[in-house]
Amino acid sequence: xxxxxxxxxxxxxxxxxxxxxxxxxxxxxxxxxxxxxxxxxxxxxxxxxxxxxxxxxxxxxxxxxxxxxxxxxxxxxxxxxxxxxx
Length: 86
Fold this sequence. Notes:
Layout (H helix, E strand, L loop, with lengths): L2 E4 L6 H10 L4 E5 L2 E6 L2 H25 L6 H11 L3
Parallel strand pairs: 1-2
Antiparallel strand pairs: 2-3
């Protein structure tokens, strides 16, 4: 479950850091009752960036399939074997 805290609680930076590292999810910061910022640990950020990269790659692959930019697996394997003398 996401954690939501008001911006005035950012004064206690050590506590916010502990919260970020204790959770695998971002911490949402509100200002005047509205979403304002998101804090997270570096590990969480890097994991989210990695997943976003994977999703983009899958999206590109699906676009290639839909556009017919595909190769026969046996032919591609044969070209690879020939190229690298396998």
